[in-house]
Design brief:
Helix content: 55-70%
CATH superfamily of the largest domain: GAF domain
Shape: elongated
Strand order of the largest sheet: 2-1-5-4-3
Distance between the termini: 115 Å
Structural class: alpha+beta
Radius of gyration: 27 Å
Strand content: 5-15%
Largest sheet: 5 strands, antiparallel
Mean pLDDT: 87
Number of strands: 5
């Protein structure tokens, strides 16, 4: 009987065959990651794609999420997040909103990979673990998204079974997290640049009415243009209105008074 297997291809070694499959999945996900266009679907869309690629790349995963964190703030950690599956979104709600405790927060705060194969007995997260375990999710792997001197956020990977993430899964996850951090960081920068462009365009469009309001205030009270703008800004902050809204009101009131004088005359 002829053995058609090629010597050294790993077909007779289950562990080697698994490693080959996992490496192929990682290579495919990294290629997909490199091909992402940040502006195509916006920041939220890109984060969801990264989460989907992570769930595909990391062996044992049933779902994954990507979170952008403001690690310098304790009152509102989350800048943006996305999930590959709905159950991951539900876990994120528990982690960030309900408890403010969980693997992503630990991974980002301590800048290290964390994992658990038995969440319902996990002492690192005594409130989060049992809560998620009751949902039928028992394994978690969180990978910080790190750049030099900066924590971008974290990738959270979950599985329903216990002890789902072995050393190979952790290694593959860490290999995925590096390029993912760059992609997510670039997407954030692009989103910020687009937001700034929109603000500048809005400022240019609104500049005439602001200039009119400054002129009206100077005619009433004297002073410089900077002093008049400072008064507009003070009103804006006190009344929680945009400066353009305050300016529009100042101009409208001046026009109303002028029309009333004309009518009386």
């Amino acid at each position: 009987m002829t053995d058609d297997r090629i010597e050294g291809d790993g077909s007779d070694d289950p562990d080697r065959a698994r490693r080959v499959r996992d490496d192929d999945d990682l290579a495919t996900s990294l290629a997909d990651l490199a091909g992402l266009v940040s502006g195509a679907n916006g920041l939220d869309g890109l984060l969801k794609q990264v989460a989907t690629f992570a769930a595909h790349a990391i062996p044992g995963a049933d779902g994954a999420g990507v979170t952008l964190l403001r690690v310098d703030r304790s009152d509102n950690r989350v800048e943006a997040l996305a999930a590959s599956h709905p159950f991951v979104s539900a876990i994120d709600e528990i982690q960030y909103v309900t408890l403010d405790e969980g693997p992503c927060i630990t991974a980002a705060d301590e800048r290290r990979t964390v994992h658990s194969g038995s969440l319902d007995e996990e002492k690192m997260w005594p409130h989060f673990g049992p809560r998620v375990g009751r949902m039928g999710v028992h394994s978690a792997l969180s990978l910080p998204l790190l750049l030099p001197g900066e924590v971008v956020g974290a990738i959270n990977v979950y599985a329903r079974g216990k002890d789902a993430f072995d050393e190979l899964a952790i290694e593959i996850g860490e290999n995925f997290a590096g390029p993912a951090a760059v992609a997510v960081h670039n997407a954030r920068l692009l989103a910020q640049a687009l937001a700034l462009t929109t603000q500048l365009q809005s400022a240019l469009a609104n500049r005439p009415v602001i200039d009119q309001a400054i002129g009206i205030l100077r005619a009433r009270r004297g002073g410089t243009a900077d002093e008049a703008f400072a008064r507009l800004r003070a009103i804006s902050q006190h009344e929680h209105l945009r400066i353009v809204e305050v300016s529009q009101r100042v101009v409208a009131e001046a026009v109303g008074r002028a029309r009333a004088r004309d009518a009386d005359g």
